[in-house]
Design brief:
Blueprint: H1 3-26, H2 31-58, H3 63-98
Helix pairs in contact: 1-2, 2-3
Keywords: Membrane, Transmembrane, Transmembrane helix
Transmembrane segments: 6-24, 31-55, 67-88
């Protein structure tokens, strides 16, 4: 597989992280923009499904294996996003309240 195709696959599969992060931060003030970026993230996850299925067909792997790989990718995306949201947004507020500051 050429380096350009690998770069495009990595870019497309990293975009849901970016859009989900933007959606998380826009959700409280601008709900419509938050929903838009969340849908954009879900759309790029579907694009990643398509890329994985095409890769499976071109290399003559069973499509079911690729589907399971895509599902694992989606689960890992959700887990990493949840951990990141907790670490960078929820955890500092909890620590502030625990140590007596106002959040």
């Amino acid at each position: 597989m050429p380096a350009f195709e690998i770069a495009v696959m990595l870019l497309v599969s990293s975009l849901p992280f970016l859009f989900a992060y933007i959606a998380f931060h826009l959700w409280n003030r601008y709900t419509a923009l938050g929903i838009f970026f969340l849908l954009l993230a879900l759309g790029f996850i579907m694009v990643s499904f398509g890329i994985a299925m095409q890769f499976a067909d071109s290399n003559q792997y069973p499509a079911l294996t690729s589907l399971f790989a895509s599902l694992i990718y989606v689960m890992v995306t959700v887990i990493i996003f949840t951990i990141g949201a907790f670490m960078f947004d929820v955890l500092p507020l909890m620590l502030k309240r625990f140590f007596g500051g106002k959040a």
